[in-house]
Amino acid sequence: MKDLKSCTIIGIVFVLITGTLAHFLYNWSGQNYAAGLFTPINESIWEHMKLLFFPMFLYSLFFILKFRKKYSCITSALCFGILAGTLLIPLIYYAYTYVLGRNFFIADIGIFLLSTIIAFWLSYKLTLSCKLESCTLFLCILVCLLFACFLIFTYHAPDLVIFQDPTE
Asked: What is the Cα–Cα distance from 83 to 72, expressed in whole angstroms?
C-alpha cells in the first residue's frame, strides 16, 4: 500500500508539471497540428480540460502496468479518477464564475490543482476499495470516448460555450 501511495503522490506531481508545461506547448511548437490534439490550442474551458486528461491518462498507463497484478481494481479506479478530475474542471469553473460573475486567474490555477488532487485521491481510494471493479469496461469506454472527443473537437468544436475562447 505504501508503494501505491508513493506512486499516487508522484502522479499528482507529474500531472501538475506536465499539465502546466502542456499549457504552452502548442505555441512553443509553432502551433503544430499534432501538438494541438493533446494540448490546449486556445483558452476555452474544453481545451484546458486536456491539461489534466492527457497527463493523467499517460501516467495511468504506467500505473496500470506497474500495479495491475497487485491491485486488481486499479484500472477502474484510474479511469474513474481521470473522468472525475477532467469533469471537475468545467464544473468548478462555471460554479465559481456564476457566483462571482467573472473568473480569476489564480482561481483557475487552483481548479487545476484541486481537480488533479481529487482525481488521484479518488483513484487511490477506489483502488483499495474495489467498489468500481464491475464497471471497468464501462469506465474504460468512457475514457476512450472522451479521448476521441478531445481529438475531434480540438479542430471541429461545436458552437457551445465550453468550446469558446473567452479571449476572442
From this structure: 19
Distance, CA of 131 to CA of 144 (rounded, Å): 21
- Cβ-contact 113, 154 below 8 angstroms: no
Residue-wise pLDDT tens digits, 136-155: 999 999 999 999 999 999 99
The tens digit of pLDDT for each residue in 87-118 reads 999 999 999 999 999 989 999 999 999 999 99
DSSP state of 30: T
DSSP H or E run through 37: helix 33-38
DSSP for 59-118, please give it.
HHHHHHHHHTTT-TTHHHHHHHHHHHHHHHHHHHHHHHHHHHSS--HHHHHHHHHHHHHH
Candidates 66, 50, 75; CA nearest to 141 is 75
Task: Determine if residue 31 is left, alpha or beta; phi over 0 gives left, psi from -120 to 50 gives alpha, anything else beta.
Answer: left
Q: What is the pLDDT of residue 9?
A: 97
CA distances 129 to 62, 73, 142, Å, are: 21, 8, 21
The answer to whether residues 52 and 112 touch, using CB atoms and an 8 Å cutoff, is: yes
Distance of CA 78 to the CA centre of its chain: 11
Q: Which of 137, 9, 119, 125 is nearest to 71 (CA)?
A: 125
